[in-house]
Amino acid sequence: MTSSVMQVFASYLHLIAVAIYLGGSITMEFVLGPAQKYIPPAQAQIVGQKSADRFLLLVWGSLALFPISGMLLFFSLGDQHMVSKGHFFNTSYGQTLSTMMFLWAVLVVNGLVITFVLRPKLTSKLSGDLGMPSAGDKIKLLESTATWITRITRIDLAIALVIVLLGASLSYGNGIL
Predict the structure, then answer these.
(1) How far apart are CA 61 and CA 70, in angstroms?
(2) What is the Cα Rg of the chain in Å?
(3) 161 near 22, Cβ under 8 Å?
(4) Measured between alpha carbons, how far is residue 51 from residues 28, 58, 71, 121 in Å?
(5) Contacts with 143 (C-beta within 8 Å, 6 or more apart), sequence order
(6) Separation CA 157–CA 26 (nearest Å)
(7) pLDDT 10s digit of each residue in the chain, 177 long?
(8) Three-state SS for 114?
(9) 160-164 — which CB contacts under 8 Å span 24+ positions?
C-alpha cells in the first residue's frame, strides 16, 4: 500500500475505534444508565448485564485497535524518523504521544479490573443456603461493586475525552504538552 492509502486506512480504523469507545461510553453513561432507573430493579439488572456484556466486546476491540491503528498511522505519516532521534520524547509531539499511550494503558488496566474482578462479583448469584445477615452482606457487596464500576467507567470516560483532545492536538499541530 502507498503511504497515503495506508494513512487513510489507519486514520479510518483509529477514528472508528474512538467512535465506538467514546460513543458507547457516553451512551452507557448518559442514556442506558438513567433509563434503567425507570424499570423494575430485576429487569434493570438484566438489561444492564446484557448490555454490558455486549459493550465489553466493543470496548476490548476498540482498546486493541487503538495501538494497532495508531502504529499504522504513525508509520504512514513518516514520523518514525523522529523516534530514532534521542530527543523524541523531549518534543511536544513525543510527550503528547507518550501521555496518550500512558492513558490508554490506564484504560486497559481499568478494563481488566472491571472485566475480571468487579463484573464477576456482580454476576455471582446469591446462594440459597445463606442466612439473612449473609444475604444482606452479599447485597451490600453487590451495591459497593456496582458503585465502583460506575466510578471507574466515569473516570474512563473522562480519560477517553482527554485522549481525544490530545490526539486532535497531534493531528492539527505538534501536540500540546
Answers:
(1) 14
(2) 20
(3) yes
(4) 9, 11, 31, 17
(5) none
(6) 7
(7) 567 888 899 999 999 999 999 999 999 999 998 998 899 988 888 888 899 999 999 999 999 999 999 988 888 876 666 676 677 788 888 899 999 999 999 999 999 999 999 998 887 754 444 444 577 787 788 889 889 999 999 999 999 999 999 999 988 888 887
(8) helix
(9) 160/21, 160/22, 160/25, 160/107, 161/22, 162/103, 163/100, 163/103, 163/104, 163/107, 164/18, 164/22
Look up residue 26 and give its three cell numbers: 457516553
Cell of 3: 503511504
Q: Where are the alpha helices (DSSP H) in the chain?
A: 3-27, 33-36, 41-76, 80-84, 92-113, 119-123, 132-171
What value, to the nearest 5°, has the Cα angle with vertex 57 and ends 53 and 58? 115
C-alpha cell at 114: 472491571
- Say which DSSP state 30 is in: I
Query: For residue 56, what are the contacts with CB-CB under 8 A and spacing of at least 6?
Result: 111, 115, 119
Helix (H) or strand (E) holding 91: none
